[in-house]
UniProtKB/TrEMBL annotation:
Transmembrane segments: none annotated. Binds 1 FAD per subunit. PANTHER family: CRYPTOCHROME, CRYPTOCHROME DASH. Keywords: FAD, Flavoprotein. The gene is Crydash_1. This is CRYD protein. Its cofactor is FAD.
Length: 129
């Protein structure tokens, strides 16, 4: 399935690049967290980055953090068969050794879980509620 919504995709790319419209200070796109939240087993990455197919599970999101033995077993050589990272953001560190599970991005202010909310949730409420 191909996602083709020109405006949405353009806006998301701008946001990812850090130049999108976001009123919150110091807001950064955390690729590691997003990978764990939306591709916990790494199937999407494995589909489009065949060089990393030998890496099991969520480790595929941070191949540079694996031991040389694990990389060797997966057939990955950083700098040769897969590039070394150009930059590693400090924000990534708290997610780098996490395992996927749950949906922390849907957690409410008081720590309560919310069901996934579609657009109707935001626009179908009565104005006086």
């Amino acid at each position: 399935k191909v996602d083709y919504d020109v405006c949405s995709n353009y806006g998301n790319w701008l946001y990812s690049a850090g130049i999108g419209n976001d009123p919150r200070d110091s807001r950064k796109f955390n690729m590691i967290k997003q990978g764990l939240d939306y591709d916990g087993n790494g199937d999407y990455v494995r589909l489009w980055v065949p060089e990393l197919q030998g890496i099991k599970g969520a480790d595929i999101h941070t191949p540079w953090a694996l031991s040389s033995a694990a990389l060797s077993q997966a057939g990955v050589t950083l700098g040769e068969t897969y590039p070394r990272p150009v930059v590693t953001a400090p924000e990534w560190s708290r997610h780098m050794h996490q395992r996927p599970g749950g949906s922390p991005h849907l957690r409410g202010r008081r720590g309560t879980q919310h069901k996934d909310r579609g657009i109707d949730f935001y626009f179908s409420r009565k104005k006086d509620a």
